[in-house]
Design brief:
Elements (H helix, E strand, L loop, with lengths): L1 H18 L26 E2 L13 H13 L1 H22 L4 E12 L15 E15 L4 H67 L5 H35 L21 E2 L6 H4 L1 H21 L5 E12 L11 E10 L7 H67 L5 H36 L3 H17 L11 H5 L1
Parallel strand pairs: 1-4
Antiparallel strand pairs: 2-3, 3-5, 5-6
Helix pairs in contact: 2-4, 3-4, 4-5, 4-7, 4-9, 4-10, 5-9, 7-8, 8-9
């Protein structure tokens, strides 16, 4: 009874010491970040759509299905989810060192000793004997100076960093699928323009061939018409190659082998999304890459304390309780009881700079992580401003190009009429039609760029829409994880830490 009371008192004392122990190293706190009041190229025509599934604003069900397929099947998302599980395991392993490690053992053996050995057997004792043992042992490192707690803090930050990296992968995937699909529809429209132009020029070559045979036009004019026909014809295989390559790239994003991609809306039929609302300070809480960089900083900050704790003693206690007997029948009797208890203290005295080197490394890594975080914030502000100005100016450019195409179409029609009336040479007709063809292709490219600028803007703004997309991947991951008893769906790292 007295021994039990002493053990209880000692355990209570250890608990008090642990709870009030030192925690070395700096505690993380987010430093004030200089942020502008508004974005440089912000517009008043905004809407709070940063927390919605913004891609549905294009009003193309095919695009919606492609994004859903990509979120469910993309390999990069699955790899990122597996890394979250990896860091979850590392966190659990590191945190386990805060608690006693308890194990049980049992042995049974039969042995014969030599009668002619240096230690002869006692009179009346046979050389053959049995041995039975049952024991429960425990070992515990008392984290008096916070080394294990700092390592656990770093492991937790690494886990949350991997979770934000997974969300950044989702963000990039959705934007890549939308951009690739818009580019694909742009190439489709350019191919249609090239085929229509080539067909029109083929008719011109046919007419000029008949006129040349009748002596109405010169061979030079016939060669000019043939040259323009071949020029437009050459763009067709070039565009077909780009379309096939775009389909292959999009197929990989969908988690599939290269295959044809189903089409939906024509390029000109896409609805124009609205510009998302947001303040520069919101980016710190909305963009996964910034949250990831901050968690990397938290991890590096915690490792400083873990390194500094190496200067101080490491205290551990071990204990064992069990029974041992030569007869199994007496294994559970009082005389067979055995126990042991021990404590150990290890204090570094001379390490030839090993510990100071680890501290120096941790402090340098923390400074680098801080600078990386600050740079990531600045780059984020730049990306948002770039996306805002691109969205605004591309729409202005598209309006100008629309008027240019209209004017060139009129010019080409009048030039051909003047040529048919004998008032100008065929060169003027060729120049007008060539300019119209180039302008139509440029207009299509700008139209796709203007739509893609909205994709880029939603990507760099971050926002709650990443959570909405995350739900689609979480359901898929949860279904795949049911076979593993201890596995958790990706996206539950934060909940698991609570």
């Amino acid at each position: 009874m007295l021994r039990a009371r002493l053990s209880l008192c000692f355990a209570s004392l250890v608990g008090v010491v642990l709870l009030n122990g030192c925690l070395l190293g700096p505690n993380y706190s987010r430093e004030p970040v200089p942020t502008p009041a508004t974005f440089r190229f912000a517009t008043t025509e905004v809407a709070d759509t940063a927390n919605t599934e913004w891609w549905k604003q294009f009003q193309d069900p095919v695009l919606d299905d492609l994004i859903a397929t990509a979120l469910a099947n993309n390999k990069d998302v699955k790899i990122a989810a597996a890394r979250v599980e990896q860091f979850m395991g590392q966190f659990v392993t590191t945190r386990s060192a805060l608690f006693p490690q308890i194990s049980a053992g049992a042995t049974a053996g039969r042995q014969r000793i030599s009668r002619a050995g240096p230690q002869p057997t006692l009179p009346g004792v046979g050389p053959v004997f049995n041995n039975f043992e049952l024991s429960v042992s425990a070992a515990w490192e008392i984290d008096l100076f916070g080394r294990i707690r700092r390592l656990t803090e770093a492991a937790r930050a690494n886990l949350l960093s991997s979770e934000e990296a997974r969300r950044a992968t989702i963000l990039s995937l959705v934007a890549s699928v939308a951009s690739s699909y818009l580019n694909l529809r742009s190439l489709d429209q350019q191919l249609a323009i090239a085929k229509a132009t080539t067909e029109s020029r083929a008719e011109s070559v046919h007419v000029f061939t008949l006129r040349f045979e009748g002596g109405e036009v010169s061979q030079m004019e016939l060669a000019q018409s043939q040259s323009e026909y071949e020029a437009s014809l050459a763009t067709i295989p070039q565009l077909e190659t780009q379309i096939a390559q775009q389909e292959d790239a999009l197929s990989v994003l969908l988690g599939d082998n290269p295959r044809p991609i189903v089409r939906g809306c024509e390029l000109g039929a896409f609805a124009t999304p609205v510009i998302p609302a947001g303040l520069p300070s919101d980016l710190l809480e909305r963009r996964p890459d910034l949250l990831q960089a901050e968690q990397d900083l938290i991890a590096a900050n915690a490792l400083i304390g873990a390194a500094r704790a190496l200067y101080f003693p490491q205290i551990s206690i071990t204990g064992l309780f069990g029974t041992a007997s030569g007869q199994f029948s007496s294994l559970f009797t009082g005389p067979s009881r055995v126990w042991s208890f021990a404590g150990a203290v290890t204090q570094p005295i001379f390490t030839a700079g090993n510990i100071s080197g680890q501290v120096q490394t941790a402090e340098a890594q923390q400074r680098a992580a801080l600078l990386s975080y600050q740079k990531a914030i600045q780059v984020a502000f730049q990306e948002v401003d770039d996306a805002l100005i691109a969205s605004q100016k591309l729409h202005t450019q598209l309006e100008v190009q629309g008027r240019q195409v209209t004017a060139l179409a009129t010019y080409a029609r009048l030039a051909r009429a003047r040529y048919e009336g004998g008032y100008t040479s065929y060169i003027e007709v060729l120049d007008a039609e060539r300019s119209l063809f180039d302008a139509q292709l440029a207009q299509t490219q700008t139209q796709a760029a203007a739509l893609t600028s909205f994709v880029t803007l939603y990507k760099v703004m971050g926002g709650g829409w990443v959570v909405e997309a995350d739900k689609m991947t979480t359901q898929q991951t949860a279904g795949e994880s049911q076979s593993a008893e201890t596995s958790k769906p990706a996206g539950t790292a934060a909940q698991a830490l609570q």
